Amino acid sequence: MMLPVIGPGRDDARSPGRRRVGRTLTTRAVLVTCLVALISVLVTLVVSVPLAARTADRQAREALAAQANLAAQVLRPRIDRGRSTDEERIIQQLRRQRIDAYLIRAGQPDRSGLPQATVQRIAAGHNFSGRRLVAGRPSLIEGRALPGGSGVVLVRPLVSGLWLRIVAGLWLPLLAGLVAGVVAGILLARRLARPIRNAATAAARLRSGERDVRLPVEPPQEAADLAYALNDLATALATSEGRQREFLLSVSHELRTPLTSIRGYAEAIADGVVGPDEAQRAGRTMLGEAEHLDRLVSDLLALARLEAADFALEPLPVELGGLLRAVAQTWAPRCAAAGVELRAELPPTPVAVWTDPGRIRQVVDGLLENALRVVPPGAPVVVAARAASGADAGPAPRNGGGIVQVRDGGPGFTDDDLAVAFERGALHQRYRGVRKVGSGLGLALAAGLVRRLGGAISAGHAPEGGASFTVWLPPPP
Asked: Scanning 78, 411, 423, 448, which has the fewest C-beta atoms within 10 Å of its C-beta?
Protein backbone atom coordinates (compact mmCIF):
# COMPACT_ATOMS: atom_id res chain seq x y z
CA MET A 1 0.00 0.00 0.00
CA MET A 2 1.33 3.42 -0.96
CA LEU A 3 1.35 5.84 1.95
CA PRO A 4 1.11 9.61 1.36
CA VAL A 5 4.34 11.52 1.77
CA ILE A 6 4.04 14.45 4.11
CA GLY A 7 6.19 17.45 3.37
CA PRO A 8 8.74 18.74 5.87
CA GLY A 9 6.74 21.86 6.60
CA ARG A 10 3.65 19.98 7.68
CA ASP A 11 5.68 17.38 9.53
CA ASP A 12 7.50 20.05 11.50
CA ALA A 13 4.21 21.73 12.31
CA ARG A 14 2.84 18.47 13.67
CA SER A 15 5.96 17.50 15.58
CA PRO A 16 5.32 17.50 19.37
CA GLY A 17 8.66 19.14 20.00
CA ARG A 18 7.76 22.11 17.80
CA ARG A 19 4.25 22.79 19.08
CA ARG A 20 3.53 26.25 20.27
CA VAL A 21 2.57 26.24 23.90
CA GLY A 22 -0.47 28.44 23.37
CA ARG A 23 -1.89 26.17 20.67
CA THR A 24 -2.23 22.99 22.69
CA LEU A 25 -5.63 22.00 24.05
CA THR A 26 -4.22 21.58 27.55
CA THR A 27 -2.77 25.09 27.63
CA ARG A 28 -5.93 26.66 26.26
CA ALA A 29 -8.14 24.76 28.67
CA VAL A 30 -5.94 25.81 31.59
CA LEU A 31 -6.01 29.43 30.44
CA VAL A 32 -9.79 29.33 30.08
CA THR A 33 -10.31 27.78 33.51
CA CYS A 34 -7.88 30.29 35.05
CA LEU A 35 -9.79 33.11 33.41
CA VAL A 36 -13.10 31.69 34.62
CA ALA A 37 -11.71 31.30 38.14
CA LEU A 38 -10.36 34.86 38.09
CA ILE A 39 -13.67 36.25 36.86
CA SER A 40 -15.45 34.24 39.56
CA VAL A 41 -13.15 35.73 42.21
CA LEU A 42 -13.73 39.25 40.92
CA VAL A 43 -17.49 38.74 40.78
CA THR A 44 -17.35 37.34 44.31
CA LEU A 45 -15.49 40.42 45.46
CA VAL A 46 -17.89 42.78 43.73
CA VAL A 47 -20.90 41.02 45.23
CA SER A 48 -19.60 40.02 48.66
CA VAL A 49 -17.77 43.21 49.72
CA PRO A 50 -20.86 45.49 49.57
CA LEU A 51 -22.90 42.79 51.28
CA ALA A 52 -20.26 42.44 53.99
CA ALA A 53 -20.09 46.23 54.39
CA ARG A 54 -23.86 46.52 54.72
CA THR A 55 -23.91 43.63 57.17
CA ALA A 56 -21.17 45.21 59.28
CA ASP A 57 -23.00 48.57 59.24
CA ARG A 58 -26.29 46.95 60.25
CA GLN A 59 -24.62 45.03 63.05
CA ALA A 60 -22.93 48.20 64.31
CA ARG A 61 -26.25 50.08 64.28
CA GLU A 62 -28.05 47.25 66.07
CA ALA A 63 -25.30 47.03 68.70
CA LEU A 64 -25.33 50.81 69.21
CA ALA A 65 -29.15 50.80 69.48
CA ALA A 66 -28.98 48.06 72.10
CA GLN A 67 -26.39 50.09 74.05
CA ALA A 68 -28.59 53.19 73.79
CA ASN A 69 -31.65 51.33 75.07
CA LEU A 70 -29.64 49.92 77.97
CA ALA A 71 -28.11 53.32 78.83
CA ALA A 72 -31.54 55.01 78.69
CA GLN A 73 -32.99 52.36 80.99
CA VAL A 74 -30.16 52.77 83.51
CA LEU A 75 -30.08 56.59 83.44
CA ARG A 76 -33.82 57.21 83.38
CA PRO A 77 -34.21 57.47 87.21
CA ARG A 78 -30.89 59.32 87.69
CA ILE A 79 -30.66 61.90 84.92
CA ASP A 80 -32.66 64.58 86.80
CA ARG A 81 -30.32 64.41 89.85
CA GLY A 82 -27.35 65.93 88.13
CA ARG A 83 -24.03 64.35 87.21
CA SER A 84 -23.27 61.34 89.40
CA THR A 85 -20.61 58.68 89.75
CA ASP A 86 -22.98 56.15 88.14
CA GLU A 87 -23.20 58.28 85.03
CA GLU A 88 -19.42 58.67 84.92
CA ARG A 89 -18.97 54.94 85.26
CA ILE A 90 -21.44 54.25 82.41
CA ILE A 91 -19.81 56.89 80.19
CA GLN A 92 -16.34 55.42 80.79
CA GLN A 93 -17.55 51.92 79.98
CA LEU A 94 -19.03 53.17 76.71
CA ARG A 95 -15.85 55.06 75.80
CA ARG A 96 -13.85 51.86 76.20
CA GLN A 97 -16.08 50.52 73.45
CA ARG A 98 -15.31 53.63 71.31
CA ILE A 99 -18.77 55.05 71.99
CA ASP A 100 -19.26 58.68 73.02
CA ALA A 101 -22.23 59.39 75.36
CA TYR A 102 -24.04 62.74 75.43
CA LEU A 103 -26.53 63.52 78.17
CA ILE A 104 -29.32 66.01 77.50
CA ARG A 105 -30.99 67.66 80.49
CA ALA A 106 -33.95 69.97 79.97
CA GLY A 107 -33.11 70.30 76.26
CA GLN A 108 -29.41 71.13 76.78
CA PRO A 109 -26.52 68.71 75.98
CA ASP A 110 -23.80 68.31 78.57
CA ARG A 111 -21.19 69.22 75.92
CA SER A 112 -21.03 70.52 72.41
CA GLY A 113 -20.66 68.56 69.20
CA LEU A 114 -24.13 67.13 68.63
CA PRO A 115 -26.14 68.47 65.70
CA GLN A 116 -28.72 70.96 66.91
CA ALA A 117 -31.53 69.19 65.05
CA THR A 118 -30.76 65.96 66.87
CA VAL A 119 -30.79 67.77 70.25
CA GLN A 120 -34.12 69.39 69.45
CA ARG A 121 -35.65 66.08 68.39
CA ILE A 122 -34.58 64.35 71.61
CA ALA A 123 -35.78 67.33 73.72
CA ALA A 124 -39.14 67.05 71.97
CA GLY A 125 -39.47 63.50 73.25
CA HIS A 126 -38.62 61.63 70.04
CA ASN A 127 -36.00 58.93 69.61
CA PHE A 128 -33.40 59.33 66.85
CA SER A 129 -31.43 56.81 64.78
CA GLY A 130 -29.22 57.65 61.83
CA ARG A 131 -25.94 59.09 60.55
CA ARG A 132 -24.79 62.61 61.15
CA LEU A 133 -21.62 64.66 61.46
CA VAL A 134 -20.57 64.82 65.10
CA ALA A 135 -17.61 67.04 65.88
CA GLY A 136 -16.80 67.06 62.17
CA ARG A 137 -16.72 63.26 61.83
CA PRO A 138 -19.35 61.02 60.17
CA SER A 139 -20.87 58.93 62.93
CA LEU A 140 -23.73 56.61 63.83
CA ILE A 141 -26.15 58.22 66.26
CA GLU A 142 -28.68 56.51 68.52
CA GLY A 143 -30.67 58.88 70.72
CA ARG A 144 -33.27 57.93 73.33
CA ALA A 145 -35.69 60.52 74.77
CA LEU A 146 -36.33 60.61 78.50
CA PRO A 147 -39.03 62.49 80.44
CA GLY A 148 -38.71 66.25 80.98
CA GLY A 149 -36.89 67.08 77.73
CA SER A 150 -33.94 64.90 78.76
CA GLY A 151 -32.26 62.11 76.86
CA VAL A 152 -29.15 60.11 76.14
CA VAL A 153 -27.35 60.06 72.81
CA LEU A 154 -24.70 57.49 71.89
CA VAL A 155 -22.31 58.27 69.08
CA ARG A 156 -19.95 55.84 67.32
CA PRO A 157 -17.64 57.21 64.59
CA LEU A 158 -17.83 55.36 61.32
CA VAL A 159 -14.83 53.15 60.70
CA SER A 160 -12.71 54.39 57.77
CA GLY A 161 -11.31 51.86 55.31
CA LEU A 162 -14.04 49.32 56.00
CA TRP A 163 -13.95 47.96 52.46
CA LEU A 164 -10.20 47.47 52.62
CA ARG A 165 -10.56 45.62 55.90
CA ILE A 166 -13.25 43.37 54.42
CA VAL A 167 -11.12 42.64 51.36
CA ALA A 168 -8.15 41.94 53.61
CA GLY A 169 -10.26 39.41 55.45
CA LEU A 170 -11.46 37.76 52.24
CA TRP A 171 -8.24 37.56 50.20
CA LEU A 172 -7.09 34.24 51.63
CA PRO A 173 -10.26 32.22 50.86
CA LEU A 174 -10.53 33.94 47.46
CA LEU A 175 -6.92 33.07 46.67
CA ALA A 176 -7.56 29.50 47.76
CA GLY A 177 -10.57 29.38 45.41
CA LEU A 178 -8.47 30.73 42.54
CA VAL A 179 -5.74 28.15 43.13
CA ALA A 180 -8.34 25.38 43.36
CA GLY A 181 -9.84 26.55 40.05
CA VAL A 182 -6.44 26.51 38.36
CA VAL A 183 -5.64 23.04 39.67
CA ALA A 184 -9.07 21.77 38.61
CA GLY A 185 -8.55 23.34 35.19
CA ILE A 186 -5.20 21.62 34.76
CA LEU A 187 -6.62 18.24 35.76
CA LEU A 188 -9.67 18.69 33.55
CA ALA A 189 -7.58 19.82 30.59
CA ARG A 190 -5.25 16.86 30.92
CA ARG A 191 -8.23 14.52 31.14
CA LEU A 192 -9.86 16.03 28.06
CA ALA A 193 -6.64 16.17 26.07
CA ARG A 194 -5.52 12.61 26.85
CA PRO A 195 -7.90 10.87 24.36
CA ILE A 196 -6.86 13.34 21.65
CA ARG A 197 -3.16 12.77 22.35
CA ASN A 198 -3.73 9.02 22.28
CA ALA A 199 -5.62 9.35 19.00
CA ALA A 200 -2.82 11.45 17.48
CA THR A 201 -0.26 8.86 18.57
CA ALA A 202 -2.37 6.04 17.14
CA ALA A 203 -2.81 7.92 13.86
CA ALA A 204 0.96 8.44 13.63
CA ARG A 205 1.51 4.72 14.19
CA LEU A 206 -1.06 3.91 11.52
CA ARG A 207 0.71 6.28 9.14
CA SER A 208 4.01 4.51 9.83
CA GLY A 209 2.50 1.18 8.80
CA GLU A 210 1.35 -0.43 12.05
CA ARG A 211 -2.04 -2.07 11.75
CA ASP A 212 -2.47 -3.63 15.21
CA VAL A 213 -3.05 -0.22 16.82
CA ARG A 214 -6.12 -0.12 19.05
CA LEU A 215 -7.30 2.66 21.36
CA PRO A 216 -8.98 1.97 24.71
CA VAL A 217 -12.63 3.00 24.66
CA GLU A 218 -13.29 5.28 27.62
CA PRO A 219 -15.71 8.11 28.48
CA PRO A 220 -16.74 10.77 27.66
CA GLN A 221 -18.88 9.74 24.71
CA GLU A 222 -16.99 11.94 22.23
CA ALA A 223 -13.69 10.30 23.20
CA ALA A 224 -15.31 6.86 22.93
CA ASP A 225 -16.62 7.72 19.44
CA LEU A 226 -13.13 8.84 18.41
CA ALA A 227 -11.62 5.60 19.72
CA TYR A 228 -14.25 3.52 17.90
CA ALA A 229 -13.59 5.42 14.65
CA LEU A 230 -9.82 4.94 14.84
CA ASN A 231 -10.16 1.27 15.78
CA ASP A 232 -12.54 0.72 12.86
CA LEU A 233 -10.12 2.56 10.58
CA ALA A 234 -7.23 0.35 11.69
CA THR A 235 -9.34 -2.76 11.10
CA ALA A 236 -10.45 -1.51 7.68
CA LEU A 237 -6.87 -0.69 6.69
CA ALA A 238 -5.65 -4.10 7.81
CA THR A 239 -8.46 -5.81 5.88
CA SER A 240 -7.89 -3.68 2.78
CA GLU A 241 -4.15 -4.24 2.80
CA GLY A 242 -4.68 -7.97 3.30
CA ARG A 243 -6.94 -8.07 0.27
CA GLN A 244 -4.49 -6.02 -1.73
CA ARG A 245 -1.68 -8.34 -0.71
CA GLU A 246 -3.67 -11.38 -1.80
CA PHE A 247 -4.63 -9.59 -5.00
CA LEU A 248 -1.02 -8.73 -5.80
CA LEU A 249 0.04 -12.30 -5.12
CA SER A 250 -2.69 -13.51 -7.45
CA VAL A 251 -1.78 -11.01 -10.17
CA SER A 252 1.91 -11.83 -9.85
CA HIS A 253 1.04 -15.50 -10.32
CA GLU A 254 -1.04 -14.66 -13.38
CA LEU A 255 1.81 -12.60 -14.79
CA ARG A 256 4.42 -15.23 -14.03
CA THR A 257 2.53 -18.09 -15.75
CA PRO A 258 2.45 -16.64 -19.30
CA LEU A 259 5.90 -15.13 -18.86
CA THR A 260 7.27 -18.54 -17.93
CA SER A 261 5.70 -20.04 -21.00
CA ILE A 262 6.99 -17.28 -23.30
CA ARG A 263 10.46 -17.47 -21.76
CA GLY A 264 10.59 -21.28 -22.10
CA TYR A 265 9.68 -21.23 -25.78
CA ALA A 266 12.02 -18.30 -26.43
CA GLU A 267 14.94 -20.16 -24.82
CA ALA A 268 14.06 -23.30 -26.77
CA ILE A 269 14.05 -21.38 -30.04
CA ALA A 270 17.30 -19.60 -29.12
CA ASP A 271 18.99 -22.92 -28.26
CA GLY A 272 17.78 -24.57 -31.45
CA VAL A 273 15.70 -27.12 -29.60
CA VAL A 274 12.55 -26.15 -31.54
CA GLY A 275 12.85 -27.18 -35.12
CA PRO A 276 11.23 -25.61 -38.18
CA ASP A 277 8.23 -27.92 -37.95
CA GLU A 278 7.46 -26.88 -34.33
CA ALA A 279 8.27 -23.17 -34.71
CA GLN A 280 4.76 -22.29 -35.90
CA ARG A 281 3.15 -24.03 -32.92
CA ALA A 282 5.58 -22.33 -30.53
CA GLY A 283 4.81 -18.95 -32.09
CA ARG A 284 1.06 -19.45 -31.70
CA THR A 285 1.58 -20.39 -28.05
CA MET A 286 3.76 -17.36 -27.40
CA LEU A 287 1.23 -15.11 -29.18
CA GLY A 288 -1.63 -16.47 -27.07
CA GLU A 289 0.29 -15.93 -23.85
CA ALA A 290 1.25 -12.41 -24.97
CA GLU A 291 -2.42 -11.63 -25.64
CA HIS A 292 -3.25 -12.95 -22.18
CA LEU A 293 -0.63 -10.62 -20.70
CA ASP A 294 -2.00 -7.74 -22.73
CA ARG A 295 -5.53 -8.32 -21.44
CA LEU A 296 -4.28 -8.57 -17.87
CA VAL A 297 -2.30 -5.34 -18.12
CA SER A 298 -5.24 -3.59 -19.80
CA ASP A 299 -7.57 -4.68 -17.00
CA LEU A 300 -5.11 -3.45 -14.38
CA LEU A 301 -4.81 -0.06 -16.10
CA ALA A 302 -8.59 0.20 -16.48
CA LEU A 303 -9.12 -0.57 -12.81
CA ALA A 304 -6.49 1.97 -11.81
CA ARG A 305 -8.12 4.68 -13.94
CA LEU A 306 -11.71 3.75 -13.17
CA GLU A 307 -12.09 6.05 -10.15
CA ALA A 308 -10.16 8.92 -11.71
CA ALA A 309 -12.06 12.13 -12.48
CA ASP A 310 -10.79 12.17 -16.08
CA PHE A 311 -12.01 8.64 -16.91
CA ALA A 312 -13.45 8.95 -20.40
CA LEU A 313 -17.19 8.36 -20.74
CA GLU A 314 -19.38 9.34 -23.69
CA PRO A 315 -22.99 8.47 -22.77
CA LEU A 316 -25.68 8.71 -25.42
CA PRO A 317 -29.02 7.02 -26.21
CA VAL A 318 -28.41 3.34 -27.05
CA GLU A 319 -30.97 0.78 -28.27
CA LEU A 320 -30.32 -2.50 -26.43
CA GLY A 321 -31.74 -4.73 -29.18
CA GLY A 322 -29.21 -3.48 -31.72
CA LEU A 323 -26.40 -3.76 -29.18
CA LEU A 324 -27.19 -7.42 -28.45
CA ARG A 325 -27.47 -8.30 -32.16
CA ALA A 326 -23.93 -7.03 -32.65
CA VAL A 327 -22.77 -9.00 -29.61
CA ALA A 328 -24.38 -12.22 -30.86
CA GLN A 329 -22.85 -11.83 -34.35
CA THR A 330 -19.40 -11.30 -32.84
CA TRP A 331 -19.49 -14.15 -30.31
CA ALA A 332 -21.42 -16.78 -32.28
CA PRO A 333 -18.37 -18.14 -34.19
CA ARG A 334 -16.24 -18.33 -31.04
CA CYS A 335 -18.98 -20.10 -29.07
CA ALA A 336 -19.55 -22.53 -31.95
CA ALA A 337 -15.83 -23.33 -32.05
CA ALA A 338 -15.97 -24.18 -28.34
CA GLY A 339 -19.11 -26.33 -28.77
CA VAL A 340 -21.22 -23.91 -26.71
CA GLU A 341 -24.73 -22.84 -27.73
CA LEU A 342 -25.16 -19.04 -27.80
CA ARG A 343 -28.72 -17.79 -27.49
CA ALA A 344 -29.79 -14.17 -27.86
CA GLU A 345 -33.10 -13.08 -26.31
CA LEU A 346 -33.95 -9.76 -27.95
CA PRO A 347 -36.72 -7.42 -26.73
CA PRO A 348 -39.92 -7.35 -28.81
CA THR A 349 -39.88 -3.55 -28.87
CA PRO A 350 -36.98 -1.09 -28.86
CA VAL A 351 -35.48 -0.43 -25.41
CA ALA A 352 -33.52 2.83 -25.15
CA VAL A 353 -30.99 3.43 -22.39
CA TRP A 354 -28.51 6.19 -21.60
CA THR A 355 -24.99 4.75 -21.62
CA ASP A 356 -21.60 4.70 -23.32
CA PRO A 357 -21.93 2.00 -26.04
CA GLY A 358 -18.21 1.20 -26.02
CA ARG A 359 -18.05 0.78 -22.25
CA ILE A 360 -21.24 -1.28 -21.94
CA ARG A 361 -19.98 -3.49 -24.78
CA GLN A 362 -16.77 -3.92 -22.76
CA VAL A 363 -18.88 -5.07 -19.80
CA VAL A 364 -20.91 -7.58 -21.85
CA ASP A 365 -17.80 -8.93 -23.59
CA GLY A 366 -16.09 -9.43 -20.23
CA LEU A 367 -19.08 -11.33 -18.83
CA LEU A 368 -19.22 -13.54 -21.94
CA GLU A 369 -15.47 -14.15 -21.69
CA ASN A 370 -15.89 -15.40 -18.13
CA ALA A 371 -18.89 -17.58 -19.08
CA LEU A 372 -17.16 -19.17 -22.08
CA ARG A 373 -14.15 -20.06 -19.91
CA VAL A 374 -16.16 -22.31 -17.56
CA VAL A 375 -19.15 -23.50 -19.62
CA PRO A 376 -18.70 -27.11 -20.80
CA PRO A 377 -19.41 -28.08 -24.45
CA GLY A 378 -23.10 -28.47 -25.13
CA ALA A 379 -24.19 -26.09 -22.35
CA PRO A 380 -25.85 -22.77 -23.27
CA VAL A 381 -24.74 -19.17 -22.91
CA VAL A 382 -27.58 -16.62 -23.05
CA VAL A 383 -27.47 -12.87 -23.68
CA ALA A 384 -30.80 -11.13 -23.07
CA ALA A 385 -32.16 -7.59 -23.13
CA ARG A 386 -35.53 -6.19 -22.10
CA ALA A 387 -37.15 -3.16 -20.57
CA ALA A 388 -36.87 -2.83 -16.80
CA SER A 389 -40.03 -3.14 -14.73
CA GLY A 390 -41.05 -2.90 -11.11
CA ALA A 391 -41.16 -6.71 -10.88
CA ASP A 392 -37.43 -6.98 -11.45
CA ALA A 393 -35.43 -8.04 -8.42
CA GLY A 394 -31.93 -6.90 -7.65
CA PRO A 395 -30.59 -3.74 -9.23
CA ALA A 396 -33.61 -2.89 -11.39
CA PRO A 397 -35.56 0.08 -9.99
CA ARG A 398 -39.08 1.13 -10.86
CA ASN A 399 -38.22 4.24 -12.88
CA GLY A 400 -37.59 2.65 -16.28
CA GLY A 401 -34.38 1.88 -18.09
CA GLY A 402 -33.22 -1.42 -19.53
CA ILE A 403 -31.92 -4.79 -18.41
CA VAL A 404 -29.02 -6.74 -19.92
CA GLN A 405 -28.43 -10.28 -18.73
CA VAL A 406 -25.65 -12.81 -19.33
CA ARG A 407 -26.55 -16.33 -18.16
CA ASP A 408 -24.76 -19.64 -18.59
CA GLY A 409 -25.09 -23.35 -17.94
CA GLY A 410 -21.73 -23.67 -16.22
CA PRO A 411 -20.88 -24.67 -12.66
CA GLY A 412 -22.27 -21.40 -11.27
CA PHE A 413 -21.64 -19.89 -7.83
CA THR A 414 -22.59 -20.64 -4.27
CA ASP A 415 -24.45 -18.09 -2.16
CA ASP A 416 -21.16 -17.22 -0.45
CA ASP A 417 -19.59 -16.62 -3.87
CA LEU A 418 -22.35 -14.19 -4.83
CA ALA A 419 -21.57 -12.02 -1.78
CA VAL A 420 -17.98 -11.40 -2.98
CA ALA A 421 -18.42 -11.84 -6.73
CA PHE A 422 -17.35 -8.29 -7.59
CA GLU A 423 -14.40 -8.03 -5.22
CA ARG A 424 -11.03 -8.05 -6.92
CA GLY A 425 -9.48 -11.50 -6.98
CA ALA A 426 -11.98 -13.02 -4.50
CA LEU A 427 -13.36 -15.75 -6.79
CA HIS A 428 -9.96 -16.21 -8.42
CA GLN A 429 -8.48 -17.04 -5.03
CA ARG A 430 -11.27 -19.52 -4.27
CA TYR A 431 -11.26 -21.45 -7.54
CA ARG A 432 -7.64 -21.32 -8.68
CA GLY A 433 -6.62 -24.89 -9.30
CA VAL A 434 -10.25 -26.08 -9.12
CA ARG A 435 -11.51 -24.84 -12.48
CA LYS A 436 -10.45 -22.42 -15.16
CA VAL A 437 -10.12 -18.90 -13.82
CA GLY A 438 -9.16 -15.56 -15.30
CA SER A 439 -7.12 -12.75 -13.83
CA GLY A 440 -9.65 -12.07 -11.06
CA LEU A 441 -10.18 -8.54 -12.36
CA GLY A 442 -12.98 -8.93 -14.90
CA LEU A 443 -15.98 -8.82 -12.57
CA ALA A 444 -14.51 -5.99 -10.47
CA LEU A 445 -13.88 -4.01 -13.66
CA ALA A 446 -17.43 -4.72 -14.92
CA ALA A 447 -18.96 -3.56 -11.62
CA GLY A 448 -16.86 -0.38 -11.64
CA LEU A 449 -17.79 0.45 -15.22
CA VAL A 450 -21.51 -0.09 -14.58
CA ARG A 451 -21.41 2.18 -11.53
CA ARG A 452 -19.63 4.91 -13.49
CA LEU A 453 -22.32 4.61 -16.17
CA GLY A 454 -25.00 5.27 -13.55
CA GLY A 455 -26.30 1.70 -13.53
CA ALA A 456 -26.22 -1.29 -11.21
CA ILE A 457 -25.06 -4.89 -11.48
CA SER A 458 -25.88 -8.02 -9.49
CA ALA A 459 -25.01 -11.71 -9.60
CA GLY A 460 -27.34 -14.65 -9.07
CA HIS A 461 -28.28 -18.16 -10.10
CA ALA A 462 -29.34 -18.74 -13.70
CA PRO A 463 -32.27 -20.98 -14.72
CA GLU A 464 -29.81 -22.68 -17.10
CA GLY A 465 -27.98 -23.98 -14.02
CA GLY A 466 -24.99 -21.66 -13.92
CA ALA A 467 -24.36 -18.03 -13.08
CA SER A 468 -26.49 -15.04 -14.01
CA PHE A 469 -25.32 -11.42 -14.20
CA THR A 470 -27.96 -8.68 -14.44
CA VAL A 471 -27.08 -5.12 -15.46
CA TRP A 472 -29.55 -2.27 -15.14
CA LEU A 473 -28.97 0.84 -17.25
CA PRO A 474 -30.81 4.16 -16.80
CA PRO A 475 -33.23 5.56 -19.38
CA PRO A 476 -32.32 8.56 -21.56
CA PRO A 477 -32.84 11.91 -19.78
From this structure: 78
The Cα 464–Cα 406 span in angstroms is: 11
pTM for this predicted structure: 0.47
Distance, CA of 118 to CA of 126 (rounded, Å): 10
The predicted-structure confidence for 339-378, as pLDDT tens digits, reads as follows 999 999 999 899 999 998 888 888 898 889 888 888 999 9
Question: Could you give the 3-state DSSP secondary structure of residue 112?
Answer: coil
Cis peptide before 220 (omega within 30 of 0): yes
CB 315 within 8 A of CB 355: yes
Contact status, residue 411 vs residue 371, Cβ threshold 8 Å:
no
The span from the CA of 364 to the CA of 326, in Å, is 11
Identify the helix (H) or strand (E) that includes residue 381: strand 380-387
Q: In terms of Cα–Cα distance, which of 35, 14, 13, 31 is closest to 22?
A: 31
Residue 259 and residue 286: Cα distance in Å, rounded?
9
Distance from chain centroid for Cα 312: 36
